[in-house]
Design a protein that fits this description.
By secondary structure, the protein is mostly helical. The protein contains 8 helices and no strands. It has one domain.
Length: about 190
């Protein structure tokens, strides 16, 4: 049993001191995930990697759902927490105070799940489509979250999900196609 798994078990059992031991062990990996997530945002992003790590960590440790059974499960929860923080930040920026819907942009075909910057509107469209996709295919949706929001490789994501690398590649191709179509449908309804 790794130190991380041992500490996660202690946190689950209610040991308050265990949470203090966990952060130093996972900080570097969480920071790497945060940097990868923020690299996809537009320049001028006010949220810094350190702040994203700390906010995600606080949400994880203060959550009532501390039912982590492994290191991989913890990092899946961390990826989801970072995703939610980035989505909340994008929604805040999109609010009337920040210009509202006045700057609607078309989603470029190359922007979906890419290494480039993603405008807030596109990130919100992706989040909505991903929520729908989660209901249809939870495993593939989890793969998208791990690869896109956590910045993990296909091989690492497959390992966390307990599926083969080839299966993960198939799910990844399917998920990208499904999400592109869903986002395109959403764009058509907005322009109608």
């Amino acid at each position: 049993m790794s130190d991380v798994t041992r500490i996660l078990n202690a946190i689950e059992e209610g040991d308050a001191r265990a949470a203090d031991e966990l952060l130093p062990l996972v900080y570097d990996e969480l920071r790497r995930l945060a940097v990868q997530n923020l690299a996809q945002e537009k320049p001028g992003q006010t949220l810094q990697a350190t702040a994203l790590v700390h906010e995600a960590y606080i949400r994880l440790v203060d959550s009532d759902e501390q039912d982590w059974n492994s290191r991989g499960h913890f990092f899946r929860a961390a990826a989801e927490a970072m995703r939610r923080i980035l989505i909340e930040n994008a929604r805040r920026k999109k609010s009337q105070r920040y210009g509202g819907d006045h700057k609607r942009m078309e989603l470029r075909e190359d922007i979906l799940i890419s290494d480039g910057e993603i405008p807030s509107d596109d990130l919100l469209a992706l989040d909505e489509a991903l929520d729908k996709f989660s209901q249809k295919d939870p495993v593939s949706a989890e793969l998208v979250k791990l690869r896109f929001f956590a910045g993990l490789t296909g091989e690492h994501s497959a390992k966390i999900l307990g599926i083969s690398h080839n299966t993960a590649d198939k799910y990844w191709r399917y998920a990208r196609s499904w999400l592109r179509l869903e986002i395109a449908k959403g764009d058509e309804s907005v322009s109608a």
